[in-house]
Amino acid sequence: MSEETALMTQGLTKSYGKVRALRGVDLEVQRGEIFGYLGPNGAGKTTTIRCLLDLIRPNGGTVRVLGIDPQADPVAVRARTGYLPGELQLDPNMSAEGALRYFNALRGNKVDWGFVRQLAQRLDLPLKPAIKNLSHGNKQKIGIVQALMHRPQLLLLDEPTLGLDPLMQHEVLRLITEAKEDGTTVFFSSHIMSEVEAVTERVAIIRKGVVVEVAEPASLINRALRRAHVRFRQPVDTGPLANVPGVTVLSQDDGTSVLLQVEGEMDGLIKALAAFPVSDFETERPSLEEIFLAYYEASDEEAS
Amino acid sequence: MLAEFKHTLRRMRGQMIGWGIGLALYGLLMVSLYDSIVGIEGFQELIASYPQELMAFFGDADFMAITTPKGYVGLYYFNYMTVIIGIFAVAACASLLVGDEEKGILDLVMAHPISRTALFWGRLLGYVAATVVILLVGYLSWFIPSGSSGLDLSWIELLRPFLPLFAQLLLFGTLALLLSMVLPSGRIAGMITGGLLVANYLLLGLSNLNESLKSFVEFTPLYYYQGGDAITELNWGWLAGLLAVSAAFVVLAWWRFQRRDIRVGGEGGWRLPSLPFRRRALPRGVSRHSV
Description:
The structure holds two protein chains of two kinds.
Chain A: E1 5-16, E2 19-30, E3 34-38, H1 45-52, E4 60-65, H2 74-79, E5 81-84, H3 96-106, H4 113-122, H5 136-148, E6 154-158, H6 166-181, E7 185-190, H7 193-199, E8 202-207, E9 210-215, H8 217-223, E10 225-232, H9 239-242, E11 247-253, E12 257-263, H10 267-273, E13 278-284, H11 288-303
Parallel strand pairs in A: 3-7, 3-8, 5-6, 6-7
Antiparallel strand pairs in A: 1-2, 1-4, 8-9, 10-12, 10-13, 11-12
Helix pairs in contact in A: 3-5
Chain B: H1 2-11, H2 13-38, H3 43-48, H4 52-56, H5 69-94, H6 98-103, H7 106-109, H8 116-146, H9 155-159, H10 162-182, H11 186-206, H12 214-217, H13 236-259
Helix pairs in contact in B: 1-8, 2-5, 2-8, 5-10, 5-11, 8-10, 10-11, 10-13
């Protein structure tokens, strides 16, 4: 493991009785990177994060967080890490400020309280009311503030924008980006693809306890199938287009328009179209969500 | 650990206030009634006429000594305070760690730089301090007004029986804590420990009627509870024994907490094995393996 690696797991396994939650997760996240961890409910995202903090003990494999083995020195890992659980629960009888002061006390009262107020202000979080009187979104904001308030080296965020309105979701993503600019490594799980696509530099896709892909979001998108709709000024024979490598004709209308499926880069198709009287050319860029679903469909087909 | 200790005390302040007020009012009432009860003519004869079976349910107390300060305090306070304050001890300890775990709160707390040992001891010491505060209020509620009544007990005489009471509360509390670490829920741990406490209390009383129970109750904690008898002399051996058993329970609970997963909802919480009759019946001809 190099000095540049913030987080590493090798062959990480974890079972709950007969349920195998993680079946050998291999991950490597570089320092200062925003890393997305994608997967549907029950795929193993939360279990992976909880192993990183020694909240649960893996059955096998190796884990290093900022170069430290969490089982050997969990306090050192947690001191350098900010964590937002996926299902955040707080003592309902405390106020937001009381909860944050308690978390600060657990961190040895080292937090700059001015920064806490600044975060609360940016997230429009009221600090005085009891948590039991706060909305789900406001409780989530307490979770975000406590994760960021000590300016951690590593942020482990499990569904950080859950329950927030779009404006606040945007603000949280800005906070994550700012933390990265300050040198923080961000590892966050989500099943909201648009936010993953917006902020992450690399993503891992986990399925049934196994990481099936690690790549840059753009690379995943570029590698995926996309559709091209071509209109012609006059009827043409679209036969030659079907011979272009990676291109499949999906449908065509009396030679004046054609719907194509393109695998990989568009270069071959565009060169082939130069010989045609093209009046309009549209492509549909797949979202990360479509790619993500494609992974699942492909894996299910393989399994069946 | 200090942060967790303070936090635990802060969270228990409601229980301390509630139990403190209740015990203070009870103590004040019983001290104020002492002179009038002692002054009732033929009171001892009246007590002596009660059936033995009824008396057995008041535990191991000496009813004939009720008109003495020692007997009065022993019967009306220390005799059953193990059960009364025991409710607090068992409920508080059964949920000391597992309560927050079941609510999902412990997940975030444990993600902070606090070791499991520090969290465990911070919370346990918080419980011990809360128990001491409650007992102190109980002590003061007897000691302060006793000067203006015929209840002639010195501060040390009155203090002594609080020590075995404290030891019993510690023992049943730590048992609840240990069971909460090994059973599927804090509620089950609390119910079992509470049941053992009440059963022990009743068995001890019944052993006065049935000699064959004597050999059995010798193995129960309340057999080694002095109650009001500690006013005259404290049995240090018994006290040390109770504290040693409590310490063993604490070490086992701590050891278990060190090694277990911190559970959250939906992450495969564990259960007791299902009983054969609870398994869902399958249609005839369908084996369980084929489902």
